[in-house]
Design brief:
With 364 residues, this protein is of the alpha+beta class. It has 2 domains: 144 residues, Glucose Permease (Domain IIA); 126 residues, no CATH class. It contains 5 helices and 18 strands. Strands 1, 2, 3, 4, 5, 6, 7, 8, 9 and 10 form a 10-stranded antiparallel β-sheet that branches. β12 and β13 form a beta hairpin. The radius of gyration is 27 Å and the shape is elongated.
Length: 364
Amino acid sequence: MSGLRRAKRAQRSAPSILAEATNDSRKRSRMTHHRELLFSLALVLGLVNAAPPPVSPGSPRPVFSFSPLELTAIQYIIPLGNLNPRHGHIFPTDHIYLVYEQPRELPVYAPASGTVLAIRGQSGDDYKLEVRVTDTFSYYLAHLFVEPGVRVGSRIEAGQVVGRTSGRASFDLGCCDTTVTLRGFANPKRYPDSTLHAVPPLKFFAEPLQSSLYAKVEKSARDKDGKIDPDIPGRLVGNWFLEGLAVSESARGTANVWEKQLAFVYDVRQTNMIRISIGGTIAPAGAYRVAEGAPDPATVSTASGKVRYKVVADGSQTGARGGADKHALVLVQMLAEDRIKAEFFSEGRTDATEFTAAAKVYVR
């Protein structure tokens, strides 16, 4: 009888054990859900700087779990494709900008764990920190003062303070994924690997941090990531290099290369606005705003003949004294699918219709 009683007791206890397990599972699910809600609320309120660890740690795609700057310190974000010719960015930039109030030295956090590849001096007195996450993915943080303990070859962890902002009001974040190659460059040999394999940084942040960062992006278009490879073969749109600049020298980030660059692209914030970005040679360096009603450079070809672009030399973009706007003209003609002639006519000469001896030839 004792064996029969034990069997009956076991039969009676099985459903209760299953019920207890089910209740425990529901409790854990509710607790996890509550924790996620609390974390999301804290993130929205700017109380935390990190997202939960990636759901799939083994995934080959890296996921950032920390913002490089405190969310409350970021005023806005400029996506990929910004123009800043006066500081070497004649072509659309391959990194984003996190803009903060200056002058301030803010803590900079590693968005993901990795190994320090390089620490490079910038044009000022600050630095660029490059970090390898996997064999194919790396990121960099620029315009910061690096912490003394952070050295080339050292391991850093996500969320670790790796430096302080240099007070320039903007901070760079760039990502490179060698499994991705951008197809919008007419002559890829003219670009460094960091540009050819550049990917949008915000795509690599875990939620809900990602949504909080996207909400700070200044851009009129729905695509908040931006674009840096604008070339269309046989069309004016995109990047051009002064004839004579060796392909092997084109990727060097030096002033004597920047001044030989020219681009017919679009404003990073107002994507329906055409900009002619000039590095120097034909005019003072600047991102000149094209007047409304001008031909879209994506439609200009050898069949278009000479094209006149009336431009505004925006003082904030060209460094003009007093920030004054000045009107000018850029005359351009596609001589071949990979060759153009261009000339800049300053204020007072905007009625020009023919090239002079000052015109320059640019190639892909």
